[in-house]
Sequence to fold (414 residues):
Amino acid sequence: MELKRVVVTGFGAITPIGNNAKEYWENLVKGQSGAAPITLFDATNFKTRFACEVKNFDPLQHFDKKEAKKMDRNTQLGMVAAKEAIEHSEILNTEVDKNRVGVIWGSGIGGLETFESEVVNWAKSDIPRFNPFFIPKMIADITPGQISIEYGFHGPNYTTVSACASSANALIDAKMLIQLGKADVIVCGGSEAAVCASGVGGFNALMALSTRNDDPTTASRPFDKDRDGFVLGEGAGCMILEEYEHALKRGATIYAELKGGGMSADAHHMTAPHPEGLGAYLVMKNCLEDAGVTADEVDHINMHGTSTPLGDIAESSAISRLLGDHAYDIQINSTKSMTGHLLGAAGVIEAIAALGTIVHGEVPPTINHFTDDEKIDSRLNFTFNHSVKKEVKIAMSNTFGFGGHNACVLFKKI
Fold:
């Protein structure tokens, strides 16, 4: 059976550095930090009192009051990103069989703020009275359900949950379903809204977050010797993945081909990466093999690069092992230095950034680099502090999640 080709025909984003895809890209290239003191709850007594929040987001600008109340912020953000991507693709401006349009969405946690508020309210009163929308607002799979309801898409519909790899896994699942002829178009992405007391408190308890409260904008500093953890972010991203011939037939703008998808497991630890980057190496190797691309053809890698002491070392080592001397000829970066870590939405947001390097011929920087880490190969081009103009024909994006879940996607210029 000959597998069908899969292309990107639209995308949308709402992030800590831009409330649509255009703003997001422009601020990535500028090196804009999205970190600031937390406003979504009172973080006075927390070890970490800052995050990368979505700014100036008013749900009532997107939904009527009744509908907004039925959605957790996680779903609201997802719906906004999906709407932008769908409109960008112009998929609804042509005759499309909605029975063959699916929605696959990633979220690592789902409606955490809803869960927190409902349980806290119950604990205060000790009377088991819950909002009738508590469960449907909270569950991780509700966002693709809401998107399908909004647009009448009857194709495959579900959520991938693999911690911070969730939306990258969604992209890979969507790619495979289209390749196999199970759908013509899949609205694919992820969302997360965990900047709440339980989210920040929980990651603080794990000692995973930066505590650089005196200077939030420089707190996310991947590969820097003085990095002290990741910065929690929120937001959503969406890509419209489409079968190549279907896209051509309707005259769609094609931005790139989603050529490869790789998956692997560290099989090592609940939260720490394999110290030698074994899972990271395998996932990139698997992605290249799936794409039919050799290591020396890669022009750019958007790294997972969370700004954690162990993770940055392991991933850098994996890239050196995979690419050999070619690793020194390409631009690699971590856009988490600007957006923070969007958890389940990280994969698609960073895939959009990788796609942007192909579309615009420019690689966004890794900001906040001050001091080299002797444990990281300084010959690697991390695109520190300034963007670099570069023709990119093949771009990869890595995303790794707690539990050892690894996902990697590869885009190719058409």
